[in-house]
Design goal:
Blueprint: E1 2-5, H1 11-25, H2 32-42, H3 45-53, E2 57-64, E3 67-76, H4 82-87, E4 93-101, H5 110-124, E5 129-135, H6 139-147, E6 151-160, E7 163-173
Parallel strand pairs: 4-5
Antiparallel strand pairs: 1-2, 2-3, 3-4, 5-7, 6-7
Helix pairs in contact: 1-2, 1-3
Length: 175
Amino acid sequence: MTVRSASAQDAAGLAVLAARTFPLACPPHVTAAEAAGFVARNLAAENFLQYLADPDRIVLVIDTGGELTGFAMLVFGEPADPDVAGAIRLRPTVELSKFYLAPEVHGSGSARGLMDSSVRAAAERGAAGVWLGVNEQNARAIRFYAKCGYETVGRKHFQVGEGVENDFVMERPTS
């Protein structure tokens, strides 16, 4: 397993991985069609090409023998959501906007390696803290983030399909 920066050549693979992993983070009431619609609008190969070209984003991938098995996306800058901006305590900040792993690598240590690399990349760019939003029903992810030093500092909303989901805002220092 290698964690590396993604390149434009990874865009199609990232889109395939996102389509497999995004539904795993959704609460049970989100339909397959709603999850697929979100992926089509936000996590298609064209979206990843734009994300990779954005100087305020870093996309990291887990490369397992030439296969992408996880990815993380960091978004630098002050959060636009007023609920998030009021909740986070550490500035400058970076959002861990995406953090997804293929089910076959769950429990392998890959997630911790990707998280450590993400926090290190944030620190190298001068961030004092990293924040993320996680659905309040995603107990597995919440436990993992807590083990990685994140604390719940607030709440925000996230739209998937017609529904508005409730997310915890979690934050940790980079050092």
